[in-house]
Structures are given as structure tokens and as C-alpha cells.
Write a structure and sequence with these properties.
Blueprint: H1 2-7, E1 27-28, H2 33-41, H3 51-61, H4 69-74, E2 82-83, H5 90-104, H6 112-123, H7 139-148, E3 153-154, E4 164-169, H8 173-176, H9 187-198, E5 203-208, H10 210-214, E6 228-232, E7 240-249, E8 252-258, E9 265-267, H11 272-278, E10 286-290
Parallel strand pairs: 1-2
Antiparallel strand pairs: 3-10, 4-5, 6-7, 6-10, 7-8, 8-9
Length: 292
């Protein structure tokens, strides 16, 4: 079960009801969601930042928010798509920060409607919320879909002077643990999931080696504020074990993520290279995604 909880850190939770364009059907986590979104988007500090820096800025603003992983995935059999900027799972944290950064650029006075539209685009396959399987169940799926729609780009293969490798995996961990997710008790949903996983047989994943990640003179020198990281799992049927957003604290490259231990959004005490080194036995490199 411990390994399965770790896996679920890669699962994307939906956050918009049927369509962001149909605001009359949009559900919210609480009454203050619109107020918080508008306040986040109207921060005067954003004006002097680029999009990647805004991603890191918004990640900092989420520090302290709790994880909603168990209540919205493991224990729910009817997925209600809710706009929520108060609690997160790892991929919804990343998607929220990207959507806020994008929404800021949509008008001179961006608001929650702009955010809702961008969030649906980032968090759902083809940018549309259509039910449980329209969410991204694997990091590789989220990356491929958002690259295709120009929301992000894969910086892994673009960073020069690093030891870039590729790992082949057949990803089907979730269907192997069907019993842990109530939504998968429905046979039709489960079979559709298995069909989806067939698309990840012999899947090629590019990654930066642990040697480059732990050497402060290698990846650290090329990292940017707001870089998104996916740490590869050693398991053959699972792509990413942890994910989050990188940000600079002085000369230290730090991690902001939904901590698997505290179950809330935290900035790790250890810098990125030290964190990877401490967890070297369960990390097989990293994939770096950017919003430039």
C-alpha cells in the first residue's frame, strides 16, 4: 500500500466540471475560491516576471496547503470536477501554477474565469473534462498531451552538456492495483483504462542521469526558476515517482511539492541535488519540463 500511495502522487485530479466555458455548471471547493484566484492573479509582483518565474511564484503561494489525494481519488466513486486552489495532489499543484501563469497573460485584468479555462486545458486530455478517464493517470500522458497542445515543452532533450538517456517501460501500474480506487470498480471504466495503458507499452522516457542531478556543477547550473521535475521510478510498470516545481532560494535550487510524508505542499529542507542524492535508491533520473 505504501508503494501505491507513492504511485498516486502521479495521478492528476480533475478540477473543472464538464466544461470551463459552461461556468453555470462549474463547481468550487469552497466559497472563497474565486476570491483567492483573483487575488493571486492581481499580485503586482507578477508584472516583472516571465511565465516560468510566475510558475515558481505561484508554487510558493501554495506552500502549506494540504493534500487532497485520498479523499478525491481513493475514497471517491463519483468524481465531481471541482475548481480547487486550497488543496492539491502533486500534478494538480503543477497544473494550477501553470494555469495561473497562463491566465495572467490573457487580459489586462485576469480573473477566475480565465484561470478556469486554462486549468481545464492543462489538467484534462485534449483540454476537456469528460469524466474519470479524461484526467491524466500517468505523468507521461500529461507531458505528451500538454506538449502537443503547446502548454509546455520537454527541456530534457534540449539541455546541452548533460548525460541524457532513455528508459523503456510498459506502464500499467494502476490497472494492477484496481482494488485501491473505487472508480475502477466499474468494469467499463477499468477496461478503458487498460486500453489506455496499452499506448504506453515499450514507452521511451528521456531522462537526465542521477550523476548530473547530484553534481552541483552540472544540472544545477542550467536549471531555471519554475522548472517542473518528474523523478523516474525504478519500477518497470510506473513512470514517475515524485514531481514538483524547482525554485531558486539565493544560490540554492529548491523543491516545492506535495510532500508524501507531511501530506501538504512544502519546500523541501534539502536542495534538489541533495534530495536526489538522499533518495538515490528510489530515483532513476529526472525529466525536466518548462513552460517557455
Amino acid at each position: 500500500m505504501k508503494l501505491f500511495k507513492t504511485l498516486l502522487l502521479t495521478i492528476a485530479l480533475a478540477a473543472v466540471s464538464t466544461s470551463a466555458s459552461a461556468f453555470e455548471t462549474l463547481a468550487f471547493h469552497c466559497d472563497s475560491d474565486t476570491i483567492r484566484i483573483n487575488e493571486l492573479l492581481r499580485d503586482p509582483q507578477l508584472k516583472e516576471m516571465n511565465r516560468s518565474e510566475r510558475v515558481a511564484h505561484f508554487a510558493r503561494r501554495m506552500i502549506g496547503c494540504p493534500s487532497n489525494l485520498r479523499s478525491e481519488i481513493l475514497e471517491s466513486d463519483s468524481m465531481v470536477f471541482t475548481l480547487n486552489v486550497h488543496s492539491f495532489n502533486p500534478l494538480s499543484l503543477i497544473s494550477t501554477c501553470i494555469a495561473l501563469a497562463q491566465a495572467y497573460e490573457t487580459s489586462s485584468a485576469p480573473g477566475w474565469r480565465d484561470y478556469a479555462d486554462r486549468y481545464e486545458s492543462v489538467m484534462y486530455k485534449s483540454g476537456k473534462a469528460r469524466g474519470f478517464l479524461s484526467r491524466f493517470l500517468y505523468a507521461s500522458d500529461w507531458i505528451a498531451d500538454n506538449i502537443f497542445r503547446n502548454n509546455v515543452n520537454d527541456a530534457t532533450l534540449r539541455i546541452d552538456q548533460l548525460n541524457i538517456r532513455k528508459k523503456e517501460k510498459s506502464i500499467d501500474y494502476i490497472s494492477r492495483h484496481r482494488e485501491a480506487i473505487k472508480a475502477l470498480s466499474d468494469s467499463t471504466t477499468y477496461e478503458r483504462l487498460r486500453m489506455l495503458e496499452m499506448g504506453f507499452r515499450n514507452h521511451q522516457i528521456p531522462y537526465i542521469s542521477n550523476g548530473d542531478l547530484t553534481n552541483p556543477k552540472r544540472f544545477k547550473q542550467l536549471a531555471k526558476d519554475g522548472d517542473i521535475f518528474f523523478l523516474l521510478a525504478p519500477d518497470n510498470d510506473l513512470d514517475s515517482r515524485e514531481m514538483g516545481i524547482l525554485t531558486w532560494e539565493g544560490d540554492k535550487l529548491m523543491i516545492i511539492h506535495v510532500s508524501p510524508t507531511s501530506e501538504k505542499v512544502e519546500m523541501e529542507a534539502l536542495p534538489f541535488e541533495a534530495y536526489v542524492k538522499r533518495n538515490i535508491k528510489r530515483i532513476k533520473g529526472a525529466r525536466i519540463i518548462r513552460v517557455e
